[in-house]
Amino acid sequence: MLATQVDKLLQLSLWDNEGLNLDLRPVDLHEIINSLSNRLRVLIEENQANLQFDLNLNETILNGDFNHLSNSFCNLIENSIKYANKQYNYKKKTEEC
Fold it and tell me: pTM score, two decimals?
């Protein structure tokens, strides 16, 4: 967890100095979402939170920067857990538009 925070700080300082540099490649949105439970395992356990994802997209590949997308989703869920009451139930769904 500390390594992740250090990486985020380093990325922010790079953005300030060099601007945002994205590595755009095909990434699987569901792969990113599914990895979140493992990345946030300690926080989930400490807060007795529950994460549920209902992933229903047929097309899950998009052009994006895997690390930036992953960190963005992670930050959103991490903040939801941190600032919610204990035993937070987080359920999100993906579906076709």
Answer: 0.72
